[in-house]
Design brief:
This protein has helices spanning 15-18, 25-30, 72-80, 122-131, 146-156, 163-180, 219-225, and strands at residues 3-12, 44-49, 60-64, 83-90, 106-108, 111-119, 187-194, 199-205, 214-216, 240-243, 254-256, 261-266, 269-274. With 278 residues, the protein is an alpha+beta fold. The chain has a single domain (3-274), classed as Aminohydrolase, N-terminal nucleophile (Ntn) domain (Glutamine Phosphoribosylpyrophosphate, subunit 1, domain 1, 4-Layer Sandwich). The strands form two sheets. A seven-stranded antiparallel beta sheet has the order 3-2-4-1-10-9-11. A six-stranded antiparallel beta sheet has the order 5-6-7-8-12-13. This is Glutamine amidotransferase.
Amino acid sequence: MCRWLAYIGEPLRPSTIVLDATHSIVAQSLDSPLGAETVNGDGFGFGWYASGAAATAEPALFHSIEPAWNDQNLRELTRAIESPLFFTHVRAAAGPPIQQTNCHPFRYENWMFMHNGAISGWRDLKRDLTLAIDPGLYPNVLGTTDSEVLFHLALTLGLQDDPIAAVGRAIRMVETVGHEHDVRFPWQGTVAVSDGSTLWAFRYSSQGRTRSLFHSTDIPTLREMYPDQARLAAFGDHARVVVSEPLNDLPGVFVEVPESTAVVLDADGYRHESFLGA
């Protein structure tokens, strides 16, 4: 399907992990050992919150239908800015066309959302799920992906008040509609969502065999584990990364997120919560 990365912490130049990491998200767009597809070259997106901006500020987005490894603008942009919270997504199209409006992340006011996975039987489920979106939100659906519909379903079902509950309700709706259409395992995926101050990440599939997802160990612990790793100096004590697959091969740097789990990352650190009845 796709690969994605989300960062939260002290303001960071995104190129540090988007481009320069040993197995960066751009490297994953060319070679993704843990992905359903090895190559993710059907466009990409980069979204970020400005350093020093209010928590309610709208994030900025950059989308392109070029492969991430071939886009000079991505290199220029991620080396020029600093951000305390940013998303990057590289796409392997599963059916919807390659166009900018189908590139993640998606945005609504101060919220960002991205997804790796798919709604099975999407062609048959699309009408019912799209019509369940609040009429006031429907005009904001600009592309043709199942991911964007899920985002607006979650908004319809209370994302801005309780992200974990709302994403859960949206996925349960996908499963209910899917089962009505005789789709055995309707939902597959990992999701990231943020309001600009907190990052929520989800790993869940109807079959219990979800795409891979990892988060980094806290930086003070990593400095104790690897005192000679000079690259750790680039990160503040509160820096956290959630990513489809690890950015390097150092043992203990990345922790796999368990099945049916929501990860919450904020100023207090991170915690795991059971998601959808695990």
